[in-house]
Design a protein that fits this description.
five-stranded mixed β-sheet; 41% helix; Nucleotidyltransferase, domain 5; 25% strand; 10 helices; 2 domains; alpha/beta
């Protein structure tokens, strides 16, 4: 799928997040559940992958791909599914689940199943983006709240995945330590964009992420890297990555926070292309 079309869908996704305005759903639709370190997202798309509904809640129930609060995660998934049901006047009984590469997919499966849903399929997060963008040659780097994950594609096939525990959570900890404030206060600063003046402080975290990418890609001839994940929304991060790894083309889609949730929900419409 061309990046231009994906960006249009991401713009629509952004407008739909937590919009409870009732609309009639089409006859067929797909549901994706993204259990992130910083948030949980339930997405509904039509058969072409066009977003119909998206509900998100910020929550710290997952850490580095491991659910640390099962009850909390289950309660949030149930709540978001209920909101999607009410908005679209449907009954969601199954969903596509996801997991960070290198972690046990049964963790995500258990949360979804204990939320009362059947797991239709389960895919690692950056690989779902590879499929959505139909990447023939290149890589996806997904920098979420807790981890930096990546997938490499060659001739349209995913040939390598990896994940390391460095993400937006570590950026927040660095801000908190520098300003001597609570983690919660630092997270607010990071999300509202006012942390730009702290780039000299948090830049080493971004360089560590670049080191992770460099390490895992050293055996591959990758010319293009697509970015995904909420941490990629941070102003200036792309400049740091370009400085650290200048011999590749870095592509930042519109609102990368929602790229993985969209890709997960679109799995059924893209699985034959990966």
């Amino acid at each position: 799928m061309k990046l231009e079309l994906v960006n249009k869908r991401l713009q629509k996704f952004e407008r739909l997040v937590n919009d409870t305005t009732p609309v009639a759903a089409p006859e067929n639709w797909h549901v994706g559940i993204d259990l992130g370190t910083a948030n949980i997202v339930v997405t509904v798309t039509d058969e072409q992958g066009e977003p119909l509904a998206a509900f998100m809640e910020w929550a710290e129930v997952v850490r580095d791909g491991v659910v640390i609060d099962y009850i909390g995660a289950i309660d949030i998934v149930k709540k978001l599914v209920k909101q999607a049901n009410e908005k679209l006047q449907i009954e969601i009984t199954s969903a596509i689940a996801s997991f960070p590469p290198g972690t046990d997919p049964r963790i995500s499966r258990n949360v979804v199943e204990n939320s009362g849903l059947k797991v239709e399929a389960i895919i690692d997060e950056p690989s779902s983006v590879v499929r959505l963008l139909q990447i023939d040659e290149g890589a996806v780097v997904d920098i979420g709240g807790g981890t930096t994950g990546l997938s490499v594609a060659r001739e349209g096939k995913i040939i390598y995945t990896a994940d390391e525990p460095t993400g937006g959570h570590h950026v927040t900890l660095t801000i908190a330590g520098n300003r001597r404030i609570s983690f919660e206060e630092a997270e607010k600063i990071k999300r509202n964009g006012s942390a730009g003046t702290l780039m000299p402080v948090i830049e080493p975290v971004f360089r560590k992420m670049a080191d992770i990418v460099r390490l895992h890609l050293k055996s591959f001839d990758v010319k293009t890297i697509y970015l995904s994940g909420g941490t990629c929304c941070f102003p200036g991060i792309v400049n740091v990555l370009e400085q650290e790894i200048p011999d590749v083309r870095w592509i930042l889609p519109h609102q990368p926070l929602f790229l993985t949730p969209l890709a997960i929900a679109s799995y059924r419409t893209t699985q034959d292309s990966g």
